[in-house]
Amino acid sequence: MATPDSLMGSPDDLVERLFAATLGAMDLFSVYLGDRLGYYRALAEGGAATSAELAQRTGTAERYAREWLEQQATTSILRCENPEAEMSVRRFQLPVAYEAVLIDPDSLTAMAPSALVFAGCVKPLPQLLEAFRTGAGVPYEDYGADMHEGIAAFNRPGFVHLLTQVWLSAMPDVHARLQADPPARVADIGMGLGWSSIAIAKGYPNLQVDGYDLDEASVAAARANAEAAGVDDRVTFHCRDAGDSDLVGLYDLALAFECIHDMSNPVAVLGSMRRLAGDSGAVLVADEKVADRFTAPGDEVERFMYGFSILHCLPVGMADKPSVGTGTVIRESTMRRYAVEAGFHETEVLPIEHDFLRFYRLHS
Ligand SMILES: C[S@@+](CC[C@H](N)C(=O)[O-])C[C@H]1O[C@@H](n2cnc3c(N)ncnc32)[C@H](O)[C@@H]1O
Is the CB of 232 inside a 6 Å radius of any atom of ligand 1? Predict the structure, then answer.
């Protein structure tokens, strides 16, 4: 049945909505500037500033700093202490309550990563248009550092606060094995910048983690992150296609966070995970918590996932051929089908509350 007119809104509604979206996009890209140029951090650490002071603290140009400060106050992200004053002496402050949202990398309310991800999404726009026309893909590396760092920053607070404490604890047998001797081994598939591997190594102080990712730049950054976190003696990152049938090892746990939907051949990767876990290991996959079926209009989560799918995940998954072309909207039925094709006999959805992720334990 077609979507009823009553659910569609009037043309005026659409105009208002797209105008609000334009303002929203401007907010997001202004946050990108504030994050990348270190403006928010400089305001948090040094206190309220004039444009000259902020420019001096961050090594940026005063005229641009001034425009950004005024824009931020206009859009109610910063507070202007003296809006009536002459522009060179106007002082701007970052409300302390906003610091968790804008500068704390471990905060579960961090939103600066959204700005990075969106800057990453638009980087290869000409290639994206071409991909839509030809059916080609856009390689993950072409989305660049903003996208890779944005995804990592987006997921990092969950890894820091929930991964070992809630997600792995939801599998008591696995949680017990990871704490026990001899030291357990974990394979982290598609680990990106490595924050999941690092969180696991910190949460279980004896075990060893091997991370596998195709993207060279991500692997290099992950190695640096593990070293800075002091866990590089137990965490090793490999630049490998996780679907490679030559991948060997025996692990107590093989896991894949938010990456199966990006893969051109997810069944091969799930097959590797099954092999790496052997008869006694466990397999955990966390991927997008989308609705059971296509509905229009969809809810906010569905809109969020389709938005990423058209801008990033589908083109990335289409870059290597042949590709199954999954996209971000990986429904539970799709994951169950891939699991069966990879040789698993049971797909268990774990009872873990999360707004965006669904957790699958796959049994051989
Ligand atoms: C959306 S990112 C997720 C990164 C990380 N798991 C996280 O949650 O932050 C997807 C990652 O999967 C990796 N990837 C895609 N296909 C892969 C494959 N066949 N083998 C290994 N890694 C792969 C990409 O390079 C990328 O780093």
Answer: no
